[in-house]
Amino acid sequence: MDALENRLHEDLTAAIRSRDEVAAATLRMALTAVKNEAVSGKEARELTDADVLAVLGREAKKRRESAAAYDDANRPELADRERAELVVLEGYLPAQLSDDELAALVAAAVAESGADSPRAMGTVMKVLTPRVAGRAEGGRVAAAVRTALGA
Q1: Same-domain pairing of 85 and 142
Q2: Blockwise average pLDDT, block size 10, the chain, 151 residues
Q3: CATH label of the domain that carries residue 144
Q4: In total, how many domains does the chain have?
Q5: What are the angstrom distances between the C-alpha of 90 and each of 15, 17, 93, 131, 141?
Q6: Residue 111's domain spans which residues?
Q7: 3-state class of 81 per DSSP?
Q8: What does the pLDDT read at residue 1?
Q9: Residues 25 and 42 in one domain
Q10: Which of 110, 46, 20 is nearest to 28 (CA)?
Q11: Which of 85, 86, 90, 97 could form a disulfide with 101 if both were Cys (CB 3.0 to 4.6 A apart)?
């Protein structure tokens, strides 16, 4: 078990002891998602910290989307719960890139790839994706690339 997964287990124990219901429920859910990822596929495997971060990133994205859906459905109490879970998950994720930092990385990737039209978006994304992994959502990155390429 890698360091991040151990930290999740330790924090779950602490949340249970301190009777923090939201944190305990969120960490249980996160650990279940991690276990499901470990046993998915043809054979079980040991997850690295990067794999665990990817799982936590997907779970955080689900919480953001659910909160927005609950807001649209005029269910503020459920949206607040999703946001509370998101806060717990964000404690384990790397800091998100600001718009200026993302724009600078996009500009560098466009210059490096030599892209000059929206058709070259795939080339730019291929260069950019490893640099922003886990620090910005894919949709946000794609929108920044489209803007930079004038699409």
Answers
A1: no
A2: 89 96 96 94 87 91 95 96 95 88 90 85 88 84 88 65
A3: 1.10.10.410
A4: 2
A5: 16, 21, 5, 19, 19
A6: 99-149
A7: helix
A8: 63
A9: yes
A10: 20
A11: 97
